[in-house]
Fold:
Amino acid sequence: MDRRRQANNMDRKSLPMGENRLARLETIIENHRRQFYSSGRALKQIRDERLYRDLLFDNFEAYVRQRWDMHRSHAYRLIQAAAVVDNLLPIGDGIVPQNESQARVLARENKDEQRRLWRGFISSGMALNAANIRKFIRSQKKTGPAKKPKSVQLVEIVSAGYKAAVMAMLDQIRWAKNDAWQTTSKPAALFWLKVMKEHILTHDEKR
Structure:
């Protein structure tokens, strides 16, 4: 009698705790063969916890092949697809990939990129199918994520007093320009600008 038949004939009520856990996970797979998310999560737990050893299988590949007539690559696709859904659930407003082929398009990206791309895809209003997801991702790869302007990084840390002093200086420059540089000459304004710049750079060097 082969291992698959042995597994099917086991009295699961008398199994130890680990094997009872395996039995529950196998029931999920058996009842949800067409639901990639449930099957993928169950397979992941069996693989990660090596529960297949309870049925005397040496490795996960042999387990899925003999127990479920499933190729190793397909089992791993289901596991990866379920992981994608788990990653997207908190940010998709309930909208997640509906089958393994849709999730597979995102599986090759890291978790942060999956979320960024999924937010963009949902906002795009495109119909939910694998071809459109793939098309959207290709368009994003060409343009790349929006970069923050460097100016934002330069001014993000500034005290209220420093900002007030700069604004006052800008007011002085505006008044001098309106006065046609009669009260304060343009060379004098540029000189003091140079002085301030030198003080800033000298301060950085001393640090």
The longest helix spans residues 186-206. Confidence is low (pLDDT under 50) at residues 1-16, 151-155. The chain has three domains: 3-70, 81-143, 150-206.
